[in-house]
C-alpha cells in the first residue's frame, strides 16, 4: 500500500470514529432519565457511581450504558487503527500519540465508572493524548488546518488541567469535561477529512 493510500485510509477511520461517537453520545444522553449535561460527567452515561457514607453504589441506565460504551469503544478502536496507518506512513510521533489516545478511549468503553481508578486512568490517557495529537499535527497539516489544530489541542489540554483541578468556570463538571472532549472530536473529524483529501505524503 502506497503512503498516500495509508493516509487516506487513516483519515477515513479517524473521521468515522468521531462521526459515530457524536450521535452515539447524544442518543445516550437523551435516553438517560434526567441526565444533566452540566452537572454530570460524560462517563455517567456508561455507569453512574456515588459514594454515600462510605458505601459506593453504581447504577446503569439502559440502553444508555450500552450505547455509550459501544460508541466510545468504536471511537477508540477506529482511532487506534487509523493511528497505525499514520505511523506506517512515516509520521511516527503523531501515530504513537494517536494510538495512546485510542487505547484510552477503548479503555473507557471497556472499564466503566464501576472500576473506579482504572476508568479514570484510561479517561485521562484518552484526553491527554487527544490534545497532544492535535498539537503535534500542527507540523503535518497545512494552514489553516494547522492553526485550528494547534488551538483545538491547546483548548483540550487547558480544559483538562482545569477539570483536574476541579475548576469548572460555572460550566459544571459535565460542562467542563465537554470542553475537553468537543475540541478533540472536532480535531479528529477535521484532521481525518484532511487526510482523506490529501494527495501528498505528510
Q: Structural class of the secondary structure composition?
A: mainly alpha
For the record, the count of structural domains works out to 1
Overall geometry: globular
Structural Rg: 17 Å
Q: Mean pLDDT score, rounded?
A: 94
Strand order of the largest sheet: 1-2
* Residue fraction in strands: under 5%
Helix segment count?
A: 6
Series of secondary-structure elements, N-terminal to C-terminal: HEEHHHHH
Q: What is the straight-line distance between the termini?
A: 15 Å
Specify the biggest β-sheet. Answer: 2 strands, antiparallel
- Helix proportion of residues, in percent? 55-70%
Number of strands: 2
Low-pLDDT segments, ≥5 res: none
Write the layout of secondary structure elements.
Elements: H1 3-31, E1 48-52, E2 55-59, H2 64-88, H3 92-110, H4 117-136, H5 145-164, H6 172-197
Antiparallel strand pairs: 1-2
Helix pairs in contact: 1-2, 1-6, 2-3, 3-4, 4-5, 4-6, 5-6
List keywords for this structure.
single chain; 202 residues; mainly alpha; two-stranded antiparallel ribbon; 6 helices; 5% strand
Amino acid at each position: 500500500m502506497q503512503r498516500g493510500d495509508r493516509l487516506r485510509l487513516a483519515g477515513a477511520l479517524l473521521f468515522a470514529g468521531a462521526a459515530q461517537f457524536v450521535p452515539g453520545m447524544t442518543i445516550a444522553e437523551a435516553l438517560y432519565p434526567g441526565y444533566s449535561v452540566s452537572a454530570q460527567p460524560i462517563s455517567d452515561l456508561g455507569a453512574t457511581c456515588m459514594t454515600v457514607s462510605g458505601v459506593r453504589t453504581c447504577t446503569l441506565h439502559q440502553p444508555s450504558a450500552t450505547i455509550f460504551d459501544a460508541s466510545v469503544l468504536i471511537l477508540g478502536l477506529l482511532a487506534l487503527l487509523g493511528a497505525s496507518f499514520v505511523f506506517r506512513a512515516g509520521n511516527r510521533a503523531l501515530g504513537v500519540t494517536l494510538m495512546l489516545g485510542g487505547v484510552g478511549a477503548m479503555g473507557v468503553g471497556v472499564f466503566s465508572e464501576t472500576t473506579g481508578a482504572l476508568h479514570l486512568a484510561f479517561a485521562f490517557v484518552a484526553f491527554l493524548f487527544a490534545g497532544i495529537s492535535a498539537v503535534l499535527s500542527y507540523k503535518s497539516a497545512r494552514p489553516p488546518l494547522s492553526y485550528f489544530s494547534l488551538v483545538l489541542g491547546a483548548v483540550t489540554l487547558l480544559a483538562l488541567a482545569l477539570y483536574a483541578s476541579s475548576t469548572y468556570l460555572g460550566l459544571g463538571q459535565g460542562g467542563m469535561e465537554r470542553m475537553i472532549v468537543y475540541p478533540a472530536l472536532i480535531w479528529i473529524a477535521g484532521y481525518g477529512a484532511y487526510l482523506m483529501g490529501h494527495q501528498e505524503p505528510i
